[in-house]
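Priority: low. Protein: Gluconate 2-dehydrogenase. Input follows.
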Amino acid sequence: MRDVFPGYDVLNKRDTPSWNEQTRAVIERRLAITDEPRFFDAREWAVLKALCARIVPQPEGRASPVPVAAMVDHKALEDARDGFRHIDLPALGEAWRRGLAALDAEAQSADGASFDALAPERQDALIRAMEGGSLKHAAWGGMPCDLFFRMRVIPDVVKSYYAHPTAWSEIGFGGPASPRGYVRMDFDARDPWEAAEAKPGQENEALRENLRVGR
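Result:
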């Protein structure tokens, strides 16, 4: 995987005018989430970890991977709902518990093994079947699998990944625009405190700039 923003670490902005005390406090709480379950049981956790790894695969050898499953677990523990709920979906925590159990049951039925024990291509096949609405195991309990995929799996997993500072560094994002904000809003325009993209042949220039922007 090409490093698009070499040398950039959004956490270097922690003590700069880019972030205020409220921003720092929110990010510190997010960084304190450890890679372990507090809401899900051991079986649900194993399935969730495997599912997250297929939805948002992370670079091999990353020193501190984003704890995506733990962030989903934290959301369920806090019962951080969306402010609305589809009539065919149960509440957040129950939807996740049922969906993970059903996905594991589908794996056992089709392959005789738990979802987390399957080869990646078989996991992907079940995920695609879930997306397409063709999974019908009784463990779904009447919850449409495609609805669970569309309204719980994708939003909760992807938003968890991109809510973490490690993902921000990966995409060159500077974090919440408070209090400094952003001024240059035109296409391909960059404020001096934003990360520089390493375009082909300009990697060294981007590295030098990104080591500077956090100061």
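The CA atoms of residues 54 and 121 lie 10 Å apart. The chain has a mean pLDDT of 93.
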